[in-house]
Prior knowledge:
With 238 residues, this protein is an alpha+beta fold. It is built from nine helices and seven strands; from the N terminus they run αβαββαβαββαβαααα. It has three domains: 3-79, Ribosomal Protein S8, Chain: A, domain 1; 83-158, Alpha-Beta Plaits, CATH 3.30.70.3160; 184-237, no CATH class. It has helices spanning 3-15, 33-46, 71-81, 97-108, 138-141, 184-196, 204-207, 215-223, 227-237; strands at residues 23-26, 50-55, 63-68, 85-93, 115-117, 126-134, 151-158. The strands form two sheets. The chain has a four-stranded antiparallel sheet. One of its GO terms (cellular component) is nucleus.
Amino acid sequence: AxxxxxxxxxxxxxxxxxxxxxxxxxxxxxxxxxxxxxFHTTIRSHFPLVTSQTDESxxxxxxxxxxxxxxxxxxxxxSQHRSPYTHFTLRKEGIDTAHAIGVISRILxxxxxxxxxxxxxxxxxxxxxxxxxRGVTWEKLSGVNHASKLQLCCPSSEGVxxxxxxxxxxxxxxxxxxxxxxxxxxxxxxxxMSKNGFINFYGPQxxxxxxxxxxxxxxxxxxxxxxxxxxGLFLQSR
Length: 238
């Protein structure tokens, strides 16, 4: 076989490992032991889905048989070289990010610690965000779509997790409901908000859910350099 035939053979193996049995490669001369070793090393390094074997029957040339790996060896190779993290987009509604990750963990029976994300999304919104899962295949993750109202999509294999702070920014689309009549005054208010912005209200992910001391009370004391009072509030909240 020449290089073109070998290339076609390997592409066939990639598409269907069990579709091709083998191919024979013969050199113009007898190769030395070191040259034969180099040939097998090259095949293993650059064409990992096949294996090579020297054909000892030829005396005036060197001949090699190339055949696909067995399926169990292909599975082992893919598991060893698979990217350790599966990234996916999580769509949720009426639930915050931490709760959503908890739901996914319970459905799949895996620890929440395998999941990382760049930030927390609010409960009262339809949100989309990227999530990374360590050592969990997309085949397993996609099962969540059939067992909950959460939606997982757009998977990719990555070599790194996601960290808080990785987020480049947020995009918001605000829906105003129950509008009976839209007046010129309303249009002017929207115009002013577009120009000047509006007050940014934060949820529990910023101020916490404690009933004794809220984190913004501690923050006020820190901003005023009242560290003793801030520490007292912090300890009181515990």
